[in-house]
Each structure stands twice: as C-alpha cells, then as structure tokens.
Design goal:
- It contains 2 helices and 4 strands, in the order E-E-H-E-H-E.
- The protein is an alpha+beta fold and about 80 residues long.
- Helix 2 links the parallel strand 3 and strand 4 (about 65-70).
- The protein starts with a strand and ends in a 10-residue tail after the last strand.
- About 5% of the residues are buried.
- The model has no long low-confidence stretch (mean pLDDT about 90).
C-alpha cells in the first residue's frame, strides 16, 4: 500500500479540517499538476523550487513519475522568478 488519504484535524492553516493525500500517493502518479494562486503563496512557490525541507513546504517533495507541471497565476509567480 502506498499510503492514501489521511484526515487532517486542527491544522493551524485553513481549512483546519480537511482530507489530504500522502506523498507516496502523489508521487506514484504519472503526471502531477500543482495549481497555485495568490501572492501569499509566492514565497512557498520559490521555496519549493529551491528544494527546501518538505516538512516546511510539502509541495517541494511532490514529483510525477513522467511530469510535474506548475500552473501559477501572476501573483503566485511574483517571487518565483528571480
């Protein structure tokens, strides 16, 4: 088994209750797309591309087997390209 869906409760970041997929599940997909919107995500996008600790920026550990595509709005891309 590759993990699965896990319940998240009491998260300090909204929504405080949600369902999330584990890294093994996400990384077993052939193609992964990450959709990111908003200026408040720009630093996380930059950090993910710089390879920071995945516990701080979980998206930095997500890779599709064949491809990983980031789709950013202009605000989220603001600090990504330096």
């Amino acid at each position: 088994m590759l993990g699965g869906a896990v319940a998240v409760t009491g998260s300090p970041k909204p929504p405080s209750q949600r369902i999330s997929l584990t890294w093994p599940v996400l990384n077993s997909a052939r193609h992964v797309a990450l959709l990111v919107a908003g200026a408040e995500k720009a630093e996380a996008v930059r950090a993910a591309h710089d390879g920071v600790d995945p516990w701080e920026v979980p998206a930095s550990a997500v890779r599709g087997l064949d491809s990983t595509t980031w789709v950013l709005d202009e605000a989220a891309a603001g600090r990504a390209a330096r």
